[in-house]
Amino acid sequence: MVSQKRKQDSIEVQATHSYSRRLIFKNPCDKVKMTQPSSSKIVLRNTAKAVIGPLKDGISSLNGVYEALITADVDPVTGQCSNYISIRQQIVQAHQHLQQSEQMAGSGLKSLDKSLESLIQDEGKLNREMNNTKQTLDNLRTEQESNKQLLREFQGTLETLQDQENRKHTAEIVTGVGAGLFAIPVIGWIAGSAMVIGGAVELDQATHAVNMAKEEVKKSEREVEKYNHKVSDYEYKIFQTNCDISQKDEKLKQKREEIQKVKKQIESVAEFQNKVRSAVHLLSVLSGKASVAEHQTRRFILQEPVVKVMEDVMKAANEITGNELLYNEDIPRLIGQMKENNQRLTTICASENNEGV
Fold first, then answer.
1. Residues 91-129: pLDDT tens digits?
2. What is the crossing angle of helices 39-71 and 84-180, to 10°?
3. DSSP of 344-355
4. How many domains does the chain have?
5. From CA 35, how far away is CA 280, in angstroms rounded?
6. Residue 80: beta bridge partners?
7. Beta strands in the chain (DSSP E)
8. Is 341 within the bounds of a domain?
């Protein structure tokens, strides 16, 4: 009985140690880490660099327009500037630069749309994988319950053998005691005889039961060892699967966060594109949609909200480029210079109006 118990304990300890070793040397629950920048961040960074160059050139050309208007000689009758051809060329250049910036923003939008589409597909794939993994976990748990039930049954078989061995041992004791009582006069003989007969019957029955159970017990010992290992293995598989679910859940969370970021990036780039498009439209008007003579006057450019439009462009640009890139490219200084030139031009026009009165 003691040897059987030790053997069973040894099986369980071996299985437990095997499971523990796997936990030490491999931990599938390590957190998912983003080691590389996402494709959308790269697209946005490249888009920012692509739009900022022509944008800067466009602002510089607009400042050239303001400076030419400020220094130009003006016909007192028509109000037309003497250098209107040069002014118009500057406006055309500004128009072309901003148009190029707007086109770069459009290309960036297409790339971001592709990134978003890819992320949504990845999210769907992860969702399907998550559902499959959860189903696998349910199946493992069901199989584990079956393994534990079979282990209990085979352990019960071993316990039955131990009970039979206990019966045999007790019967042997009773038989020995009964034989010894033959030496007791009269009463002892009767009692001893009855105990020997009863004990012999019990011993024979117990021995027969033990012999019948031995083959089954050998099989049970193997099965107990097998299912001890199997229960341990399934515990580890369940542990792995739970960790797999945790990792997939973390990936899904990251993917959904990235999807929201890309959507915001798309909104920012689209807003920038719309603002630049408004500026392009305005410069298209200034560059000669109507009569050149009318458009190359100081007053006309003040009638159009050039500075306001460009300030809106800068605010939208800040959303996709950030302050650092804008300052590195000297954009804020150029916008400030444009505002100063606009104020100077306003003062000159007001002075001319007063002189006319």
1. 889 999 999 999 999 999 999 999 999 999 999 999 999
2. 160
3. HHHHHHHHHHHH
4. 1
5. 40
6. 297
7. none
8. yes
Q: How far apart are CA 233 and CA 227, in angstroms?
A: 9
Cα-based torsion angle of the residue sequence 201, 204, 208, 209 in order, rounded to the nearest 10 degrees: 50
Please give the structure tokens belonging to residue 209. 């039961």
Residue 26: DSSP 8-state: -
Domain membership of residue 19 (yes or no) is no
Long-range contacts of 319-323 (CB under 8 A, 24+ apart): 319/268, 319/271, 319/272, 320/44, 320/47, 320/48, 320/51, 320/265, 320/268, 320/269, 320/272, 321/48, 321/51, 321/52, 322/48
C-alpha dist (Å) from residue 77 to 87, 296, 304, 347, 353: 19, 14, 22, 19, 12
Question: Whats the size of the chain, residue-wise?
Answer: 357
pLDDT in tens, 135-170: 999 999 999 999 899 888 888 877 877 677 666 666
Q: Which residues of the chain have a pLDDT value below 50?
A: 1-4, 6-8, 10-26, 177-184, 186-197, 289-295, 357
Q: By residue range, what is the domain housing residue 351?
A: 37-356
Q: Are 219 and 160 in contact (CB under 8 A)?
A: no
Alpha carbons 283 and 100: distance in angstroms, whole number: 13
Identify whether the C-beta of residue 256 lies closer than 8 Å to the C-beta of residue 127.
Answer: no
**Assigned domain for 2 exists:** no
Q: Whole-model pTM above 0.85?
A: no
Q: List, in sequence order, every residue forming a beta bridge with 81; answer none if it has no partner.
A: 74
Contact 220, 192 (CB under 8 A): no
30: DSSP letter: P
| 62: in domain | yes
Question: Are residues 241 and 137 in contact, defined by beta-carbon separation less than 8 angstroms?
Answer: yes
- State both tokens at 283: 């410069």
Lookup result for tokens 């800068």: 314
